[in-house]
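Quick start: what a row looks like.
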Amino acid sequence: MSSNARGALLALLAFAIFATHDVFIKVLGGSYSPIQVVFFSVLLSFPLATVQLMRDPTPGTLRPHHPWWMALRTAAGVMTGISAFYAFSVLPLAQVYAILFASPLLITILAIPILGERVRLRRALAVVVGLAGVMVVLRPGSTQLELGHAAAMAAAIGSSLTSIIVRKIGADERPVVLMLFPLVGNFVVMGALLGTVYRPMPIEHIGMAAVIAVFSFAAGLLVIGAYRAGEAVIVAPMQYSQILWATLFGVLFFGETPDGTTVLGAAIIIASGLYIVLRESRSQDSATPVLRTRLRIDTGTFLRLRLPEEIAPTIPREMPDNAPSARARPHLRGLPGRVPPVAEPRRTDTD
């Protein structure tokens, strides 16, 4: 099996587990407030977080190098957690996914002010088309919009913001710091609000909250393995397989059948997202914020393990003439392990 095929299969398995994880969220959301579901999911994630702390070989403290960016990421993670859990509780699974799939489009927009990314005409048009697909799913004016729709949009925006912040500061922060702060933020905020909504939970429902934590951790590890095995341009689009699982689970467990308008809107959003991923894979000018970001809603309730693509240092596009590696070395040509001094230039995004 080729490395790309292995990466794609690992990603498909990871997103299937994530989709199953969301089924448990929906089941618990039918009986409990999203505040309570988030709180117990976070609480039961702390043993896994402790394991990650013990395995982290990076020296240093848990104090972030970028406290204000970390504070914004934590706040966005808290907003994303409660918004996503509420949306899954009250809306059909396929409809929630269709809205959350707008994240790559929002990441492209947020990359302009935060990363200084330049978005050329074709990708800008893809963003506009994708956002039009979101409007097709929401159908303002022809259907009654609920709080769940607003929550799904808030989750997409918050998740995109957290992903962009990780791309900006990920090279400077320890993985456990990026993981722990949103986790603690959710624990503190939801714990403070828990007394207003708490309902006693039987042991089987506490077990479901534990399954949510374990599934998130396992799927996160599989995503890491997928990106290490295959190219990002192959792995990233696998996230869209979640819409198939959402449709299947919705029909089997909740009696939900997506209507034609939702399917059409989802197809538009997915096509726009795939176009952006493919354009970024061919672009030299792009900082590739979508390709280097794990395309899974970051709720701050599970252990977000850092991907190699998210922390890889940006390779300088121009090398100084006086750099040692820039000077031609004819006597080294042909030696094993040596890179020829002249390489074929990368394709550029000429849009």
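That is the whole record. Residues 3-314 form one domain. Confidence is low (pLDDT under 50) at residues 308-344.
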